């Protein structure tokens, strides 16, 4: 290398201070890129020359939707620049041809008088390895002039956890950013290009202070777009062979300022990242609210209690969009993280890139209201999960923007939010549309299930309607009609647009007609109605139905005439007969299989084999007139008394056995069969009004619990609960959770890992009328698990409270009966979690006989004393072989005389206990997560105003 610049650079390196040569710590093996050394060492790639990249266009939808990292990796832009730049700099006498740019030191301020005549100069103090080590060890950070070549060029594919918390720009964003921040012409008189921001990076000590002296591969905490933009600008300059720009860009790379952080725990890294993002607030690539929320939730979710408090975050000066975090923005972060799934996150990212962050992701308020209104709607309809509903909203927004049916400026707070019950916004209206589309799909599925999938047209109806329910699927199935332009570039009038649509139909491009081609008449009407819903034909009618529990029925029964048009369209579709005589669309809610909710097993087992699985009657409906109902009530009473009465102690009688008992067996066989079938239908219809059973596939996933509950709750409960009048009680009894091999002799605590799913599900029940009752099963170790998982701060000001139940001791069955000092296990702790402050719950009088002596007979004291217990001999029983299908290790005591055994040896609570709980807590709806032997189910059948839903896992071996 020759020339004054080369000589100056050489002198700068030789004039290092003595402390610069001080020994540093031995370098550990540096983190390597998955792309190999070629990305870091251009010399290694010399053997296999990388071709000149063909840069894709910066405009268009594809550029907005494509990650810049993917383009840089696919086109090998990093590798090509590092390969071609050293020879180009050598031709400009700026470095040697074989220079490894990754190890190039930053420019140093020279004392030479001719400094201003050099090609590249600096104005800041350069990185000093000795000082870097001292500062990193003492302060955990170091800031100085650096070289951009040191930055990681693996494109976010290092596998480092922090990479998921660094914003990845799109290819379009990088191009736009480069045009602004790395312009062709500098605004400075001397032509110098500057980095407008200090770039935050991190690494371990061996990376930041390697044996060679200068870093070679540091990871970015923020501002990754600066690295992309500079490399893209240099790539274009090398392709154009613009020596002047190459020189200025090289100078720019050697005068960047790095604030290096020593890699630490995740919480510290996230705080640095949040602060670094705020420094980029004037640039394009600051954190979106979603990224901000993810970082905050990671901090709040840590084990360190100090990190969980709002005060701690405010003390750390955590800000978003220039505003310090407050209670509202913190709650918005939690709502977003809890209710946004991967599909929703991807859709939100697409909206940001295509139409800007101001639509949803620029501030916290709109995303907070979106989640809040969605949770309110989910409580009303209980059909879809909140994450699925949020995803539906975002996908609908994206489709509207993409098709040009709405502009980004439409999605303002005043348009999307609900302003009182009579002024629903876009969010509530769209969720109503989602629920109605789901009901329409249920109609078609019901008909197909009744016909057992044997009618081809019904199968196609369901498939077509499924396409019409999803916003993205509808958009792909029904592409927008291209708009015509006149000679002046303006849109033509409606008549011309209609002619354009008709021309498409003539040419055979009628997507709706093609979709309807092989459908039944009803299917065609449903699909056409769904298409009209998406095109906005019924927006006014949907607004009138936002607070209606049954949207479909509400539209058809509209007395005020607000939904006349939509109601007529629904009636036309529903009243059409199916192509098979076995079903009619008048059957609103039908399923192929119904399960009797008696003799239930626990949530880790399944139902007792004594409970029959029956095919649903496909008739138009059984006779439910008043003259027939007494017989149905009698049948349910006999059934309840036969198997679930604690005094009988035998396996439950199935409905088939009951029908056989009540029927006249001496009559003609055909007449007897008809009699039994009729009674069966009547009993099923009466039972379904009181109790339902939902079968869970996986109890370890809280989303599985919530999804199943959302689908079945609407069919079980006619209305929402009401605080102090009609509470919805969620029940978990740990004595009926799992049955182990030696349960008849030993009682063990439940493994906490098995309860993560159900406890996560319970925490999602946040309505003010929801009460969560968890009982420890007379096992002290279970109390610690309950307090740890369900205690702590409860949203809404509620909390976890406890009361004691002292059971009457009964003679054990199958267990050791020896009385040991202080060995009684008849005391049970019941934990009640509420979602409102206790002062909002009214104190009522207690009439039960289990009030503790000397205590006031009110719900101020909820303790129970002398509650009749149940022994194993009094519980409903099944054959041991049947029980082993549920619990393979089940066994019976050697001195057990009966041929059948209880489902749970340690079940403690009988009918009297549940009667007292229902009365004390004003319970009108019960969700039983541990049905056990069916005691609570039996009791609910005797109430006229208590609905019952049991959720249990299917695991028959």
TrEMBL record:
The lineage of its organism: Eukaryota, Sar, Alveolata, Dinophyceae, Suessiales. This is Cdkl4 protein. Residues 1-59 are annotated as: Disordered. Residues 35-48 have a biased composition (Low complexity). It comes from the Eukaryota.
């Amino acid at each position: 290398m020759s020339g004054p610049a080369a000589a100056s650079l050489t002198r700068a390196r030789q004039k290092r201070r003595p402390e610069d040569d001080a020994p540093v710590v031995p370098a550990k093996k540096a983190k390597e890129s998955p792309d190999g050394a070629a990305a870091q060492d251009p010399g290694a790639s010399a053997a296999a020359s990388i071709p000149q990249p063909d840069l894709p266009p910066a405009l268009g939808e594809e550029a907005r939707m494509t990650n810049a990292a993917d383009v840089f990796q696919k086109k090998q832009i990093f590798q090509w620049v590092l390969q071609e730049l050293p020879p180009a700099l050598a031709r400009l006498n700026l470095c040697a041809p074989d220079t490894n740019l990754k190890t190039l030191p930053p420019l140093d301020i020279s004392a030479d008088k001719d400094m201003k005549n050099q090609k590249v100069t600096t104005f800041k103090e350069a990185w000093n390895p000795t000082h870097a080590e001292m500062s990193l060890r003492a302060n955990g950070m170091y800031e100085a002039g650096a070289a951009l070549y040191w930055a990681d060029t693996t494109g976010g594919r290092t596998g480092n956890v922090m990479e998921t918390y660094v914003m990845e720009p799109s290819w379009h964003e990088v191009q736009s950013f480069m045009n602004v921040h790395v312009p062709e012409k500098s605004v400075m008189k001397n032509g110098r290009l500057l980095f407008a921001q200090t770039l935050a990076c991190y690494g371990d000590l061996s990376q930041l202070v390697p044996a060679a002296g200068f870093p070679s591969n540091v990871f970015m905490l923020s501002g990754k777009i600066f690295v992309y933009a500079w490399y893209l600008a240099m790539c274009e300059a090398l392709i154009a062979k613009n020596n002047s720009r190459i020189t200025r860009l090289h100078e720019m790379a050697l005068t960047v300022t790095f604030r290096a952080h020593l890699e630490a725990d995740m919480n510290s890294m996230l705080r640095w990242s949040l602060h670094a993002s705020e420094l980029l607030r004037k640039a394009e690539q600051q954190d979106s609210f979603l990224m901000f929320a993810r970082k905050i939730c990671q901090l709040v979710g840590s084990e360190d209690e100090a990190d969980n408090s709002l005060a701690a975050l405010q003390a750390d000066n955590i800000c978003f969009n220039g505003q310090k975090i407050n209670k509202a923005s913190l709650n918005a972060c939690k709502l977003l993280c809890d209710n946004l799934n991967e599909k929703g996150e991807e859709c939100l990212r697409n909206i940001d890139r295509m139409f800007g962050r101001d639509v949803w992701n620029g501030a916290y308020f709109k995303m907070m209201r979106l989640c809040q209104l969605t949770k309110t709607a989910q409580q009303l309809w209980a059909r879809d999960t909140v994450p699925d509903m949020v995803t539906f909203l975002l996908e609908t927004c994206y489709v509207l923007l993409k098709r040009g049916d709405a502009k980004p400026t439409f999605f303002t707070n005043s348009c999307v939010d609900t302003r009182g019950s009579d002024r629903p916004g876009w969010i509530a209206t769209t969720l109503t549309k989602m629920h109605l589309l789901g009901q329409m799909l249920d109609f078609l599925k019901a008909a197909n299930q009744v016909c057992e999938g044997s009618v081809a047209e019904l199968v196609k109806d369901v498939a077509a309607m499924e396409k019409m329910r999803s916003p993205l699927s509808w958009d792909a199935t029904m592409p927008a009609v291209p708009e015509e332009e006149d000679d002046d570039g303006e849109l033509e009038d409606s008549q011309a647009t209609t002619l354009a649509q008709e021309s498409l139909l003539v040419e055979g491009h009628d997507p709706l007609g093609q979709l309807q081609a092989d459908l039944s008449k009803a299917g065609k009407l449903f699909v056409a109605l769904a298409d009209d819903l998406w095109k906005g034909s019924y927006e006014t009618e949907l607004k009138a139905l936002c607070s209606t529990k049954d949207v479909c029925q509400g539209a058809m029964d509209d007395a005020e005439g607000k939904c006349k048009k939509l109601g007529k369209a629904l009636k036309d579709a529903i009243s059409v007969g199916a192509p098979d005589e076995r079903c009619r669309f008048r059957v609103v809610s039908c399923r192929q299989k119904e399960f009797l909710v008696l003799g239930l097993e626990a949530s880790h087992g399944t139902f007792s084999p004594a409970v029959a699985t029956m095919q649903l009657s496909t008739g138009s409906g059984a006779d439910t007139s008043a003259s027939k109902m007494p017989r149905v009530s009698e049948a349910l009473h006999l059934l309840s008394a036969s198997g679930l009465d604690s005094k009988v102690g035998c396996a439950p009688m199935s409905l088939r056995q009951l029908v056989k008992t009540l029927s006249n067996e001496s009559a003609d066989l055909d007449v007897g069969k008809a009699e039994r079938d009729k009674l069966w239908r009547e009993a099923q219809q009466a039972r379904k009004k009181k109790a339902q059973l939902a079968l869970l596939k996986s109890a370890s996933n809280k989303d599985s619990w919530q999804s199943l509950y959302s689908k079945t709750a609407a069919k079980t409960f006619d209305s929402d609960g009401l605080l102090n009048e009609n509470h919805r009680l969620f029940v978990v009894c740990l004595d009926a959770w799992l049955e182990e091999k030696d349960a008849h002799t030993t009682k063990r605590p439940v493994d906490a890992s098995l309860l993560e799913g159900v406890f996560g599900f319970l925490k999602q029940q946040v309505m003010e009328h929801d009460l969560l009752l968890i009982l420890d099963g007379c096992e002290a170790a279970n109390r610690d698990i309950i307090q740890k998982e369900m205690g702590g701060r409860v949203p809404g000001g509620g909390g976890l409270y406890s009361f004691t139940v002292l059971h009457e001791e009964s003679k054990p069955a199958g267990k050791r009966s020896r009385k040991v000092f202080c060995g009684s296990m008849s005391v049970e702790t019941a934990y009640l979690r509420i979602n409102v402050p206790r002062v909002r719950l009214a104190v009522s009088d207690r009439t039960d006989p289990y009030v503790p002596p000397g205590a006031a007979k009110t719900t101020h004291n909820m303790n129970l004393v002398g509650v009749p217990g149940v022994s194993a001999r009094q519980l409903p029983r099944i054959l041991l072989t049947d029980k082993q299908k549920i619990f393979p290790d089940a066994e019976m005591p050697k001195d057990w005389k009966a041929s059948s055994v209880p489902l749970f040896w340690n079940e403690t609570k009988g009918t009297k206990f549940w009667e007292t709980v229902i009365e004390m807590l004003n319970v009108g709806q019960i969700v039983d997560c541990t049905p056990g032997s069916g005691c609570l189910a039996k009791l609910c059948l005797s109430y006229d105003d208590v609905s019952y839903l049991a959720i249990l896992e299917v695991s028959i071996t």
